């Protein structure tokens, strides 16, 4: 609940912020007048295209830096919290929690209560358990014998284990299937001789398996009971095994069990769970204590088999660290300078075992194995990490360094094997769903990296041609992300190619969609505010991205958010923000005497980013929209605001686009997640990078448009 004192403090904070922004705007206007001579010439068509086709070269290192803002300290009633520059939650909640708009956020749990919430969603906090079981779970101590008695009969366990290893979950790569099967057989021969940590590993596998039954709507074998109850029970048993074994004593399979347990925590709620980052910190520390961060080839005491499996485990932990840190708006846990573990080789489990003396040569990257996706993602992640780190530095990054990272990112993306490059769904009709989602995950990571790298130039130096490439890249990447959001959504509807596999989409992906939507909102605001005053910029704008196309993309995204706003607070907030921004954009266009925005015009960028193989399909035109243009025309007017007049409170953000602080935006949107709506148990698993779910399996039926 937001108290009066908190609101007063935030009002004072906003007053200070507005005064500061006014001073900065005045200063920038004076600077703009002084530098007008250098930017007044309007380039002809050929010159514009040449500027936008390639990044600027040889930029002076003494150039103006982008705005220096590295994050913010959020001070609340019960403590402080720091979030860095990469998060999308910022200015919005600073304004939306003020005055009349405070109440909807405080009572969002009531607005999306049991009478409106989908019956398949379960309140993760209903039992009083608001955090990870390992941290806040309360249960009596048990013995290993008692833990063994909780297991169902072997015939049932066999089916659950088989389901897990055939589920295509990324976590499978940290287990060597032939070795696990041998240990599994030995376990049933003599259950009391195995370590309690191994029993915990088995329980995490059973938990993930039951989750796959639940999200698919399948009946569990052996009349086990309600899926969600069994999931909670198996998660608790896994934690009891870890506690009984004292997981700080560095036993074999401790790290692997904790990693799989982390996945079971992700599936508890559709919202950001900050306890996840705490658990991840425990995992990273234990893994480093056990030397997973140092490559085994420098330590002959480790077997070839153990060394390769440790590479797989560390690769997965590192990728989770990148993604969880980005979602939480915090620095990564792993200190890269102290790590030298190589990526695993592209090998099948049958290529090596515990008796292997010399590790086989890696299979070519063009040959798909269960580990290929993890390896390729492991190549993109370090570049993404560098981008996030540079963005969050206490000092700003010069544009020359931004362009260097841009080139590095493009090179790595281009090196991905052809079968992992994004392609349209009509070219994927014979591909398995897990391969399709692997392509989308890699593509979203690539486009997200482009957004984060270049977004600081979206408003700063808007009229400076030196930064035109960065601005185009940021908007283009955001358009790609929202295009993918719509494509995936269409295919997860009943009858779609991904309908049975919608669990691949997750809340970390949601963060990407939110960021992309806000980037396009800001671009529309800039267009509305600048109008014809900045002819050079506006001339380029027309070629970069049509206003109607931006608006149309946001309208599609808005209706997707609406579809999930009753079960996800993040979706609810995104839909509300888009309502205001779409209304502002339409109103601003009308105030300039522009034509009615109906979404009928389709403008495409006339330029191609150098080296970018990403794809924005032209086939996703108006005929493929989530709702028809006629529906849009009924909903994009003043009716947007009629449902919640307090949304007018956040319109002021568009008045400060020249000094738009992405870090404040990131921080404040994230701030509200500290008091998130009751967690909802969606039909998801920890599969896609151990991310929590996004798409419920009870999406309102509608006819797919092919």
Automatic annotation (TrEMBL):
GO molecular function annotations of the record: DNA binding; zinc ion binding
Keyword annotations: Nucleus
GO CC annotations, alphabetized: nucleus
Protein source organism: Scytalidium lignicola (Hyphomycete)
Region span, Disordered: 588-626
Protein name: Xylanolytic transcriptional activator regulatory domain-containing protein
A family per Pfam: Fungal_trans
Subcellular location: Nucleus
GO biological process: DNA-templated transcription
């Amino acid at each position: 609940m937001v108290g009066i004192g908190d609101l007063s403090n935030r009002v004072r904070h906003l007053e200070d912020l507005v005064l500061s922004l006014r001073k900065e705007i005045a200063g920038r206007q004076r600077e703009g007048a002084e530098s007008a001579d250098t930017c007044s010439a309007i380039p002809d068509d050929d010159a514009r295209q040449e500027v936008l086709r390639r990044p600027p070269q040889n930029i002076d290192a003494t150039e103006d830096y982008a705005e220096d803002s590295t994050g913010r300290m959020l001070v609340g009633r019960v403590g402080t919290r720091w979030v860095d520059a990469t998060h999308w939650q910022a200015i919005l909640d600073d304004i939306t929690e003020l005055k009349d708009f405070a109440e909807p956020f405080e009572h969002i749990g009531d607005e999306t209560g049991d009478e409106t919430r989908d019956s398949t969603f379960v309140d993760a906090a209903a039992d009083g358990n608001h955090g990870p079981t390992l941290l806040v779970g309360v249960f009596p101590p048990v013995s290993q014998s008692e833990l063994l008695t909780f297991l169902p009969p072997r015939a049932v366990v066999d089916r659950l284990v088989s389901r897990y290893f055939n589920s295509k979950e990324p976590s499978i790569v940290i287990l060597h299937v032939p070795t696990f099967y041998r240990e599994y057989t030995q376990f049933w021969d003599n259950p009391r001789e195995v370590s309690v940590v191994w029993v915990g590993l088995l329980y995490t596998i059973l938990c993930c398996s039951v989750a796959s039954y639940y999200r698919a709507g399948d009946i569990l074998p052996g009349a086990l009971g309600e899926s969600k109850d069994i999931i909670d029970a198996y998660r608790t048993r896994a934690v009891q095994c870890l506690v009984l074994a004292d997981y700080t004593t560095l036993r074999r399979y401790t790290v692997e069990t904790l990693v799989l347990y982390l996945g079971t925590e992700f599936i508890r709620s559709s919202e950001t769970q900050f306890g996840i980052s705490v658990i991840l910190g425990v995992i990273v520390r234990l893994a480093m204590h056990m030397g997973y961060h140092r490559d085994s080839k420098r330590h002959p005491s480790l077997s070839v088999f153990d060394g390769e499996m440790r590479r797989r485990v560390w690769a997965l932990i590192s990728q989770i660290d990148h993604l969880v840190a980005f979602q939480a708006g915090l620095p990564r846990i792993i200190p890269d300078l102290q790590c030298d573990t190589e990526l695993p080789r592209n090998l099948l489990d049958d290529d090596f075992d515990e008796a292997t003396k010399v590790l086989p040569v890696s299979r070519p990257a063009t040959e798909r194995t269960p580990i290929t996706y993890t390896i390729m993602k492991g190549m993109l992640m370090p570049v993404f990490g560098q981008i996030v780190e540079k963005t969050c530095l206490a000092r700003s990054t010069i544009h020359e360094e931004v362009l260097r990272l841009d080139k590095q990112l493009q090179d790595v993306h281009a090196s991905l094997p052809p079968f992992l490059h994004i392609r349209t769904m009509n070219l994927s009709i014979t591909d398995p769903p897990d391969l399709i989602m692997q392509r989308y995950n890699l593509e979203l990571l690539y486009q997200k990296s482009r957004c984060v790298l270049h977004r600081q130039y979206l408003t700063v130096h808007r009229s400076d041609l030196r930064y035109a490439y960065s601005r185009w890249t940021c908007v283009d990447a955001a358009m790609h992300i929202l295009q993918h959001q719509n494509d995936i959504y269409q295919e997860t509807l009943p009858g779609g190619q991904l309908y049975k596999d919608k669990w691949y989409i997750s809340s970390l992906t949601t963060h990407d969609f939110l960021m992309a939507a806000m980037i396009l909102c800001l671009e529309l605001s800039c267009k509305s505010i600048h109008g014809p005053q900045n002819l050079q910029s506006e001339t380029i704008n027309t070629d970069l991205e049509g206003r109607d196309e931006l608006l149309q993309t946001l309208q599609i995204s808005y209706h997707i958010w609406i579809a999930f706003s009753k079960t996800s607070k993040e979706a609810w907030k995104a839909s509300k923000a888009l309502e205001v921004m779409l209304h502002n954009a339409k109103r601003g266009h009308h105030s300039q005497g522009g034509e009615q925005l109906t979404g009928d015009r389709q403008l495409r960028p006339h330029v191609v980013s150098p080296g970018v193989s990403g794809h924005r399909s032209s086939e996703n035109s108006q005929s493929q929209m989530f709702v028809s243009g006629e529906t849009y025309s009924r909903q994009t007017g003043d009716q947007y605001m009629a449902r919640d007049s307090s949304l007018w409170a956040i319109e002021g953000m568009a008045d400060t686009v020249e000094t738009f602080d992405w870090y404040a935006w990131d921080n404040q949107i994230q701030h509200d997640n500290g008091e998130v709506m009751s967690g909802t148990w969606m039909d998801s698993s920890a599969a896609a990078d151990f991310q929590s779910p996004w798409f419920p399996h009870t999406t309102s039926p509608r006819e797919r448009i092919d």
